[in-house]
Amino acid sequence: MSGAVCPPCARWAVVCRDEQVWLHGRRLARHDLAIPTSLKEQNLNAAAVVPAAGRGERLGPGAPKALRELGGVPLLVHAVRALTRSRAVTLVVVVAPADGVARVRELLDSHGAGGDEGPRVLVVPGGGTRQESVRLGLAALPPEVDVVLVHDAARPLVPVDVVDAVARAVADGAPAVVPAVPLADTVKQVGPAPAPGQPEPVLGTPDRSTLRAVQTPQGFRRDLLQSVHDKALSEAVDATDDAGLVERYGGQVVLVPGHEEAFKVTRPLDLVLAEAVLARRRANDEF
Ligand code: CTP
Ligand code: MG
How far apart are the CA of 223 and the centre of ligand 2, in A? Predict the structure, then answer.
């Protein structure tokens, strides 16, 4: 029996619909899930998949976003370094723009992030959507990998503590783990404007204290992530993040604390902020 299928309901979850708790085919008491163990103690092998094949349209014209520079170093190189700094990660699969595999390989090597030291780094071609790119990254994983961390190249400054916390939570028994932060802004749910250019009507205000903004790396048992991607492909289902696919197929996703510096570089102002964060880190490292 594989990692996280609940036999009574056949759903991919540690806690299934009938509230039984199963892990590795063993029925557990709920408190068993709280035992802290490291990946190594559990003999788990974690790889990271880094989708980096997007065009970065919202960032404006220029090179693909993952190759844009932050402090003179491509965003992707920052992201790969953040992952390889974690002792949990044994392999990184970078998913590059389909026509940019050689360039990405070269960039990683020239910045010393190509895997000569530390975890191995593979580069594979990506697809037309983030979901497709993640699927192509998963397809490149060797059989011995059993935990996968999916991390956006567009989140170059994620602290290693967040990477470790996600990996640890998966090792501790959660099959799908997402780092998240509380929202600063109040969020409104809106309906369509009556006509183009007209104001949008507000339909409601969700209670902000129950909302979280999610980040990456998102961590999964590999068999779970593979299974939801396979189902999504066969049913033409799209989700904006991998955890969304797990939720869609009835799996339980849990959150661990994220970090404000794990923000996604999406628009030009995000690059300005990222430069400032990096400059502060470099200044602090010097003194
Ligand atoms: N991504 C990918 N393959 C795609 C689209 C996105 O690997 N076909 C990756 C991006 O490279 C990024 C991550 O998914 O690291 C998050 O996506 P997003 O921030 O939306 O990046 P882009 O799609 O590049 O940006 P935009 O939507 O503004 O074009
Ligand atoms: Mg996008």
Answer: 26
Residues of the chain with pLDDT under 50: 1-6, 10-19, 23-25, 29-36
For the record, the structure tokens of 52 come out as 């980096």
End-to-end CA distance of the chain: 53
Indicate which atom in ligand 1 lies nearest the CA of residue 134: 7
Range of the domain at 150: 39-191+203-283
- Beta strand 26-27 with 189-190 is unpaired
pLDDT at position 155: 98
For residue 21, what pLDDT is reported? Answer: 56
8 A C-beta contact, residue 220 and residue 130: no
Q: What is the CATH number of the domain that holds 127?
A: 3.90.550.10
Q: What residue owns the CA closest to ligand 1's atom 8?
A: 129
CA of 59 to the centre of ligand 1 (A): 11
Q: Give the position, in ligand 1's atom list, of the atom nearest the Cα of 75.
A: 15
